[in-house]
Amino acid sequence: MYDIPHHTQETAVTDVKIKAKDVQVYYGNNHAIKDVSVEIENNTVTAFIGPSGCGKSTFLRCLNRMNDTIDICRVEGDILIDGDDIYDKRVDPVQLRAKVGMVFQKPNPFPKSIYDNIAYGPRIHGMARNKAELDDIVERALRRGAIWDEVKDRLQAPGTGLSGGQQQRLCIARAVATEPEVLLMDEPCSALDPIATAQVEELIDELRQNYAVVIVTHSMQQAARVSQKTAFFHLGNLVEYDDTSKIFTNPEDSRTESYITGRIG
Ligand SMILES: Nc1ncnc2c1ncn2[C@@H]1O[C@H](COP(=O)(O)OP(=O)(O)OP(=O)(O)O)[C@@H](O)[C@H]1O
């Protein structure tokens, strides 16, 4: 039913990058994430799937403390990256978000030039000592975002003037410019046409060489194409987490099976 490409089935030696234990998330009285424990691997694309409202985005946002920005949101439990508790009081969320980059559903370039979209984070984090170093960082990020060739002759043009697919690759380049270790993507292709989607999916596969990538997607075909691990959420519970090929061909839980065969959601 799902075409699982050969490259997603590699069983490379991996290590745990993110360890979540007994995570609960509440929005006021709404218990949105219930006792979720999961280990997310390095150099792996992990897909979060499940019906609308099941908590995929909420859990994703826990991984770089984006929920801190929502007043009524309360997160309990442990989330460790490389063994360090990211909710420890000493952790600066701004530094954390440079290490755990995020790409959103709708491309959201800053109203600045293409160059400044990329240079913004590295400037804030003092990553370059001079203009030449910053130029290098910008070029490297745009190359990693697979958009360098399309923009190298117009770096001073506004980022908002690019096509939707180009803007999303610019946003991915912006996220990687601060040298993150984890890349979170919340439905990164939902505003893109099939060609731009294919380009971004190809890029996601390349990015996992350097990062742990976590992607929320409503498209099961996309999860099957790009991920090696899949987590199925339902009503705030993590129902099943396994190799993507297993989830899509032989799931353990009847709820997972109902979802992937289109009976729920
Ligand atoms: N900012 C918020 N304030 C209050 N409640 C929220 C907020 N964001 C999400 N929720 C609630 O948390 C629950 C999980 O929502 P979430 O957006 O994480 O689900 P999702 O699986 O990502 O859904 P979708 O696939 O529709 O994007 C829902 O009950 C939702 O109403």
From TrEMBL:
Gene3D superfamilies reported for this sequence: P-loop containing nucleotide triphosphate hydrolases (3.40.50.300)
Localization annotation: Cell inner membrane
GO cellular component: plasma membrane
Membrane topology: Peripheral membrane protein
Keywords assigned: ATP-binding, Cell membrane, Membrane, Nucleotide-binding, Phosphate transport, Translocase, Transport
InterPro entries linked to this entry: AAA+_ATPase (IPR003593), ABC_transporter-like_ATP-bd (IPR003439), ABC_transporter-like_CS (IPR017871), P-loop_NTPase (IPR027417), PstB-like (IPR005670)
Residues annotated as domain ABC transporter: 18-260
Pfam families reported for this sequence: ABC_tran
Record-level Gene Ontology MF annotations: ATP binding; ATP hydrolysis activity; phosphate transmembrane transporter activity
GO BP, one annotated term: phosphate ion transmembrane transport
PANTHER family, sorted: ABC TRANSPORTER I FAMILY MEMBER 17
Function field: Part of the ABC transporter complex PstSACB involved in phosphate import. Responsible for energy coupling to the transport system.
UniProt-recorded name of the protein: Phosphate ABC transporter ATP-binding protein
